[in-house]
Amino acid sequence: MSLQQTLKDLFEASLTPSPTVILFGLAFCLLAPILLHFLYSTATPYTTLPSVLLLGPPGAGKTTLTTLFERGPQQSSSSSSPVAKTHTSQVPSSVELSVNSDDPSTSYKTNLDDEGATAKKFLLVDTPGHPKLRAQSIAHLTSAEPTIKSSLVSDGGAKSKIKAVVFMVDAAALADGDALPSTAEYLYDILLRLQKRFHSRNGSRAPASMPVLVAANKLDLFTALPAALVKSNLEAELGRIRVARSKGLLDSGVGQDELAANEEGDWLGGDGSEKFSFAQMMEFDVDIDVIGGSVIGDGPGAEKWWKWIGERV
Amino acid sequence: MLDTFEILTTSGVVLWSRTYASVSPTVVNNFINDVFIEEKSSVAGAKNGAPAAENPPYKHDQHTLRWTFEKELGIIFVAVYRSLLHISWIDKLVDNIRAIFVGLYRDELTKPNTTIVECLTFDQYFDQQLRELEQAGGKSDGRAPKHEVLSEDTGDEPPSPPNHARGQQTQPGTSPGSSPNVSRPGTPSTSHLLVAKAGPVAKMSRRARKMQNTNSAPASSGDEGPTRKAKAKPVKRGRKWDADGLADEEDGVQLDYSVPTLTSDSEVEAGARPGAVEEVDASTWGSQAKGKFVLKDLGDEVHSILADADAKKSAATKTDAPSGLVGSGLSAIGGLFRNVVGGKVLTKQDLEKAMKGMEEHLLKKNVAREAAVRLCEGVEKELVGVKTGSFESINARIQKAMEASLTKMLTPTSSLDLLREIDAITSPSVTSLRKPRPYVMSIVGVNGVGKSTNLSKICFFLLQNKYKVLIAAGDTFRSGAVEQLAVHVRNLKELTAREGGQVELYQKGYGKDAAAVAKDAVSYAAQEGFNVVLIDTAGRRHNDQRLMSSLEKFAKFAQPDKILMVGEALVGTDSVAQARNFNAAFGSGRSLDGFIISKCDTVGDMVGTLVSIVHATNVPVLFVGVGQHYSDLRNFSVKWAVEKLLSSA
What we know:
The structure holds 2 protein chains of 2 kinds.
Chain A: H1 2-15, H2 19-43, E1 51-55, H3 62-71, E2 93-100, H4 112-115, E3 119-126, H5 134-138, E4 147-149, E5 159-170, H6 171-174, H7 179-199, E6 212-217, H8 227-247, H9 259-265, E7 288-292, H10 303-312
Parallel strand pairs in A: 1-3, 1-5, 5-6, 6-7
Antiparallel strand pairs in A: 2-3, 4-5
Helix pairs in contact in A: 7-8
Chain B: E1 2-9, E2 14-19, H1 25-37, E3 58-60, E4 63-70, E5 75-82, H2 90-109, H3 122-138, H4 145-150, H5 164-174, H6 188-215, H7 217-244, H8 249-258, H9 265-272, H10 277-318, H11 325-341, H12 348-364, H13 369-383, H14 394-410, H15 418-426, E6 439-445, H16 451-464, E7 468-474, H17 481-496, E8 502-506, H18 514-528, E9 532-537, H19 545-558, E10 562-568, H20 574-584, E11 594-598, H21 608-617, E12 621-625, E13 633-635, H22 638-646
Parallel strand pairs in B: 6-9, 6-10, 7-8, 7-9, 10-11, 11-12
Antiparallel strand pairs in B: 1-2, 1-5, 3-4, 4-5, 12-13
Helix pairs in contact in B: 2-3, 2-10, 3-5, 3-7, 3-10, 5-7, 6-7, 6-8, 6-10, 7-8, 7-10, 12-13, 12-14, 13-14, 14-22, 16-17, 18-19, 20-21
InterPro entries (chain A): P-loop_NTPase, SRP_receptor_beta_su
Organism (chain A): Triangularia verruculosa
Pfam families (chain A): SRPRB
């Protein structure tokens, strides 16, 4: 009886327009959305990992490298092969990798969880190399702080900051000459975008430098060029493209008034120099390294690339 | 037989594969390039979930590929086999494998930031499926006449009456991989259990099939699989045993069920050498009993997955009707809300109206209807099932997708650096062992589009780069054509005298065969050390067979390195037919190398002709003419074109 009475009293009290009830009501109305927001926002991870962009012509071994790094730590535990079989990519994909933050030279094969080392995580974003699909991959490089969607496959998803660019080339294909122009042209586009990024800064602060690694892959093959030769070939070819572009026709849509602005924008590297070299890009905070390696086979392996990436994330 | 079966993601990683005969990876790479990236086939690749029978088979270098694509997860299932073979059950295999794989690994496939999918256990599912289909596919099952009607080419062998003799005949031919001759006693109790188990599945799928048949015709072809398999089982029992020809009915029942379920290696081996019956029998006894339990369950699991997939499909086709007033009202409000806020999963209905608007927009930009419809269909297919981002309206999403789609279409596959190509031909590197020769370019097109004008623009560009150019007057038909070129040459000579270029006209007057003139011009240029030969041709109507046929001879005689077609930006729907006819006019081994779109300055934003011709031929646009002066020739910039096409002024 008394319980019923108290309940009844409570019910009545809750419906009377007293200050307490109004206060409670208001507090609930205002706080509930905020509480809900915090509840949901903590449930989803807020921090986005930095990413390393993997570019290059088709068939260079980008996807294979991605799978190698991803499967590396598990290699000892599972019997699966170190790399997966791959085909031409159509969409970008990203994998989450972790590098030993104390000692970046740790092999990608070591399982950091077992070692107990502090791990630094990053995303390796593999992109399709087909010419028709390139535009999307390099579209974001021009902005001062280049970002890329962490999960490009599905829409929505946090943007992740690009820390470094790995440009993969097939050193064996460069030897016979046909692949060199197309490879260099892609690299030219990328470097030009990075250079424009330097000009696009606002304020006095220069954008953070963007390291670029030219990874000369497939050195396990007999016909492959060594890294030094890859570098000189690419530099020579980039220089040739630079000259050809300056002599070539204008792009459609470029008006006369934009001519002057465009002239300096399209010249890659420092002005006045006869030959192009990667060192000229230092001026624009783009330092380029060329390191040889191989994803599969008995070549030098991929350890050097891993170390390079590890030092830069 | 099947050479390879691969399951790969759109990001290029092979998740699972089975290889029977090694196939060069270029086969699958070319398949991806042609079907998915360049969309060369008439049916674009982005078809979600269409059964393999509806996707046109892709043929490459003695191999035929049957494939299906799961768009939501981005997975391609592809089966490769020799084109010589007719494998009637291949579509079914691809479809069933898709259903099973997606059913089993859906959760793993949707994980972000990884390419690893643990599917080592998928081997047994595949084996089970393959065996079932091989056995059921080779023999025409008298009890499932429906299937015979539906499948394209059933019956490598003529249907024969269902008796013992038939079983013996067909067995070795149709399924050499499995082991029909090995007799395998098992425990009777288990097999009975299994019969009971298999019952409901068979019934269920039969019901599912009935449902399907009443529902829709296209869906039913994919659904026939489980039914057929379930039915084929009892028949299999009889056949297996008959091959030995010793057993009574009861034994037959047991044996029958063990055979279709084997997968362990030793048993497959046993199948490979059927002569050693005794030995094999003894050695595999142990594993077989164990293997049977596991695999029988597997068969059931597979069937239930397939039945599930069927049920889902039929459910999906059914629930199109709105569910009551309140429900529809609520969802409508929710839909409106989501239109504004975003995060909406797009359906065909949502897109329909917006896509119509986009189509109209493209038509207004002078894109041919054919191209506009195909572009919109492609975008629609791409967007169905996609979730919009936060605060993103449907129209914005479509705009974005259309931009990507147009960029992809207009971007050339290979580099189009003309100067570099000329250099490679006229002064080849020492290692290439090629003799230097003049680079030959010819220009074709309909009357009055500006062939001679664009030819002289290109000539001007080449002269600026200090080449020695010979212009051949290939228009031996229209009076005044040669004189017109002579004027151009005189002007160009004066303009470029300081720059160091050199130009000459090669002409043989009127009435001569154009192909012969072109050939003479090329040999003359080689003698005199010219770098580039530019050949002008007579304008011709693209639907005049007599005039077009002479182009083939022309291509054979002059051997041009590049054949460019000039197209007007002014022309509308006819541009598609023009591009197609000219592209096909040079014989089987030759096609156009590029387009020059002239008179772009006269159309403003309406540059749809670009899209129409690239859509029709997959040949890239090289240059764009934007004015009357020699210098008014531009490289084609994809970004510029896409901006113009999508701008709504």
